[in-house]
Amino acid sequence: MLADLELMEHHVKVLFKHDNENRMTAVNEPPYDDAPRIFIGGTKQGYIVRYSNTLKVSLVEKLETYKGTNPGDHLVDVINVLVTDRPINNLWIGPAYVFPNVKSRSCPKAIQVTHENKELLKDHFQFTFEDFEYKQPCFVIMDEGIPVSICCSARQTSKADEASVFTHENYRGRGYGIEVSNAWAAEVQKQGRIALYSTSWDNFASQSVAKKLKLIQYGTDIHMS
Asked: Which H or E element spans position 196?
């Protein structure tokens, strides 16, 4: 298992595209929206901070004064610096997890979606169908002949993938989300990459899924736009 700080490094690279100066440029999935102005990933071993490549140099210099301490402990100060330029439009805070080794977990109901059978997604998971090239590996669970639960790669690099899992409301509580997520993670690990999962602190359903999957929390990430 990689160290927590290494996992956080993979996490931020999966979430956002970077330029040669290690500044964030865009969200790492279509339609490639602007990256947040700042990302702070905290772990027990330390933290990682990334800035948008559009953030003014003067603001970066002010934010850098918090280097050497955990910027997460100075969240109000960081916000006060950013709002001198413009208001905060979005604040995300949530736990970041990694899947343990799941290759041996049984997932008999999960079906892998490939280019040959991706039509399965068209009527029920349209956005995944439209961006299928960027969402593999992808698994679904069928019920009454329709795909009702899905897990795919929301964002990825050559080293790691971030999970996106969803089960239609009428089919929740049957363990479908757990099985389809394990199938996805097993395939990611089989391909030699790290299977990651993250959510926000106010998404209790998603945190419940993480608990049932027995995921390992390695840190917390904060990003602001």
From this structure: strand 194-198
